């Protein structure tokens, strides 16, 4: 499923 | 990953290590606000709820574990370690965390990105918790700044800790600017505004920290 792009940051 | 974000993560890591170094080696938490440390533990706990469900990279997972582990162990040291807890000055650390947490929770329920990411599988609860952690992180330093104003002589490690903690989010702002120009539709107003507010809260600390460094005098915040 698509993941919120922002979540790749700490 | 870009240089600003890596520098930001390393600065953040360094701030945590400086604090752990201070507490673990000289067994003292003088001048450190337990309230801020507890707020940071809540920030990481609510931000990394999906640590086991959404895997991004070894680096990402490792850093999340480090931040979770260090923030909770700092709280443990300051609350329960028989020597460290004696140096905690609770009379100077009177900021009530709930007056920060409740507004952030309400704001997170009202303003979050779930509405723009409808197709995303992330649950509404995770979205709200993640947004809550962003808002809370922006204001989590307030008890520490209030305590610094009351503590007359701020020791070097405490000053460095707060400086690094403020610098990391400033570097993240550069990272967001960089990503905005290099990745199409990378727009995250909520993160950007809370990150900007967070950094602005350090403005006067940065000023006095720079002055003390330039004039080579002890760091002191006006009451």
From TrEMBL, chain B:
Single Gene Ontology BP annotation: protein transport
Pfam families, per database record: ER_lumen_recept
Major location (coarse): endoplasmic reticulum
Gene Ontology terms, MF aspect: ER retention sequence binding
Localization annotation: Endoplasmic reticulum membrane
Entry GO CC: endoplasmic reticulum membrane
Family recorded in the similarity comment: Belongs to the ERD2 family.
Source superkingdom: Eukaryota
UniProt keyword annotations, A-Z: Endoplasmic reticulum, ER-Golgi transport, Membrane, Protein transport, Receptor, Signal, Transmembrane, Transmembrane helix, Transport
Spans through the membrane: 55-77, 98-117, 123-146, 158-177, 189-210
Protein name: ER lumen protein-retaining receptor
Entry membrane topology: Multi-pass membrane protein
Signal peptide residue numbers: 1-28
Source organism of this protein record: Hibiscus syriacus (Rose of Sharon)
């Amino acid at each position: 499923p698509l993941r919120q792009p922002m979540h790749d940051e700490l | 990953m870009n240089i600003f974000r890596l520098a930001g993560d390393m600065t953040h890591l360094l701030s945590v290590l400086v604090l752990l170094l201070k507490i673990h080696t000289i067994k003292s938490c003088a001048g450190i606000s337990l309230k801020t440390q507890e707020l940071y533990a809540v920030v990481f706990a609510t931000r990394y709820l999906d640590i086991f469900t959404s895997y991004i990279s070894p680096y990402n997972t490792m850093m999340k574990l480090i931040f979770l582990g260090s923030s909770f162990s700092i709280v443990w040291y300051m609350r329960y370690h028989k020597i460290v807890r004696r140096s905690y000055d609770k009379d100077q650390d009177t900021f009530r965390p709930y007056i920060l947490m409740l507004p952030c929770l309400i704001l997170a329920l009202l303003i979050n990105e779930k509405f723009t990411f409808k197709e995303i599988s992330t649950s509404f609860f995770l979205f709200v918790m993640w947004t809550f952690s962003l808002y809370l992180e922006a204001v989590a330093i307030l008890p520490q700044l209030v305590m610094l104003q009351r503590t007359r002589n701020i020791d070097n490690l405490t000053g460095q800790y707060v400086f690094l903690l403020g610098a990391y989010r400033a570097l993240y702002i550069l990272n967001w600017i960089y990503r905005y120009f290099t990745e199409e539709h990378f727009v995250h107003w909520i993160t950007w505004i809370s990150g900007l507010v967070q950094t602005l809260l350090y403005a006067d600390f940065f000023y006095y920290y720079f002055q003390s460094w330039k004039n080579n005098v002890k760091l002191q915040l006006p009451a």
